[in-house]
Amino acid sequence: MVSPGSRLWNGHGFRPVVDARGLLFANRQIYDEATTILYAKNTFVVAMNETFRFRVPGQIFPYMVAPSSIAKIRRLAITVTADVDIDNPHYTKAIAALKHNILHVAKSLNNAKVNLKLLKVRYISCYAGDLEQNRRDVDALLVHPGARPVQLMRRDGMVDTLTRNDVKRFHIQGFAFGNALCSLEVPIEHVEIYGDLPTTIVKKLNRKFNVTANPESKSSDVDIPPEAEEPVDQATGQSRNSLAEVMQRMAANNPTDGYMAEMARMLGSQPVRSHAVMEMLFSPITKEEIERANRGW
Question: In this structure, is residue 22 part of a structural domain?
Fold first, then answer.
């Protein structure tokens, strides 16, 4: 169970009023009734990343749980932290470890014959949901040769400029995770999937688990305007660069002005910036940041 006030995405956990674990040893009937309530009424979290591998067959938690108890679980949350980026020399090993872990979890749940009421899957990459929030621009980069690179905010505050090849390499891990999750064959009433996964995998998982797309689902806590309100470039499907369009019209009206034409070309090739990147670029500089910069000099 989760401690009071800690968030499970959009929910809260609780702590038992009293520690009554000794009650489980009273007799077999009380044990069966108590454990049924314990495993059926709580949401259990399976956490994984690329730095470790599940080793014990049938075990999906850091503590030993009998397969008969795992079979009683009705609500499960799988949270994946995939921090290793495409420039890390261990990226290939990270993909293999993540694939191993999700296959292990799926096999353990299949063998235990669980019957889930709720499964939440959250895939947290080094971009911590920024790619998910800007999926339209990233997808356009993969499809349209003329699409602009996309700038995303990393979890550590750094900004990455992703080209088409970068996105392809980054999505290798998401494909490995999603395809492995498809090996889960237990009955599930309701599934929620979040994260920086490839659109192809999201659609595949939605079909696999009969998920209806929820436009309000998001992996980060950043509030952004609905995509429907944002102007879209009809040629590429990405967010429009309004300033570049204005400059292009001005250049067209002044064909002899080489400077204006060069500015239009330069602005038109600028990357698409995510909302998190734009907020970082245009947020006012604080007094603490100025003092920190001065100390650095």
Answer: no
